[in-house]
Specification:
Helicase, Ruva Protein, domain 3; 5 strands; mainly alpha; 12 helices
């Protein structure tokens, strides 16, 4: 799987596993970029007691733990090239040895690999084996960045609201159209992971049942000027939304026909927002 950081490669990998005939077996995830270079071999393939200084106990490797199931190798482009031949052997022959052991272990795993790097470029640089690339590239899946699938954003927003409502004991039910529109127009350099953080922060700070975004996100700028000159910061969206509701209700704040109720805010909170944004009746 190929895609930028944060697009949801891990989610897709878990979906593939859960919908496969291996779903009753383990799915083991390995982030190749976080494992220390001197330990990655023993983490993946295991080690015997005394295999090297400090190894006082036998360790079962990730491939052995995943036998019969799935192993997800995230950031495969970060794997040291000297270990790539061992991975190639597992793919081709389904076997390996623990560090410090002459005994060959057979394993039957589905390998899902993911990278945010251009592996063909890594091959040209001599950082990734070409034969391993072709072995892994049997059924390639490219996950587009979030900015190229804006139609997914409302679904993701509703999913994250439900998730963080439950986590934070909130009851947010609606998202103003203007805020949703801004979310769909934003560039999202951090992709789904960034959207998740934005929604979690908004759920925590919202008062009432209508999602409100209180703080200005300095990152809410489109880096490519041709990509969208007219995208507003969320703070501007909220300012305009509050002003629109106040004007619609003839500047009435409290009561059943007041703007506070429609915005899902306490009247005192609405007045505080009006002071914060400098909103005054003309």
């Amino acid at each position: 799987m190929l895609g930028e950081t944060g697009v949801g490669k891990g989610v897709v990998a878990r979906a593939i596993h859960s919908l496969s005939t291996r779903k009753g077996q383990a799915m083991i995830t390995v982030n190749c970029s976080t494992l220390p270079a001197n330990l990655i071999e023993s983490e993946l393939f295991g080690r015997e007691r005394g295999a090297f200084t400090g190894s006082s106990e036998r360790q079962i490797g990730r491939f052995e733990l995943a036998d019969g199931g799935t192993i997800f190798l995230d950031e495969i482009g970060e794997m040291p090239i000297e270990l790539q031949s061992k991975l190639l052997r597992i793919i081709q022959d389904g076997e390996f040895e623990r560090l410090g052991s002459p005994r060959t272990i057979k394993t039957n795993v589905r390998i899902i690999a993911a990278s945010n790097r251009n592996l063909e470029e890594q091959i040209r640089k001599g950082c990734f084996r070409e034969d391993l690339y072709y072995r892994l590239n049997v059924f390639p899946i490219t996950i587009p960045p979030l900015r190229q699938r804006q139609e997914d954003i409302p679904l993701l927003v509703r999913h994250f609201i439900a998730l963080f409502n439950k986590k934070n004991n909130r009851n947010i039910e609606t998202v103003p159209h203007a805020i949703m529109k801004t979310l769909q127009q934003y560039f999202w350099p951090g992709n789904v992971r960034e959207l998740e953080s934005v929604i979690e922060r908004a759920v925590i700070t919202t008062q009432g049942t209508t999602l409100q975004v209180l703080d200005r996100f300095d990152t809410f700028q489109i880096p490519d000027k041709t990509a969208g000159q007219n995208v507003k910061a969320l703070i501007e969206v909220e300012h305009d939304h509050i002003l629109q509701v106040l004007e619609k209700n003839n500047w009435r704040i409290e009561g059943k026909k007041g703007a506070a109720l429609q915005l899902g805010l306490n009247p005192s909170t609405l007045r505080a927002r009006m002071r914060k944004y400098g909103i005054q009746r003309q």
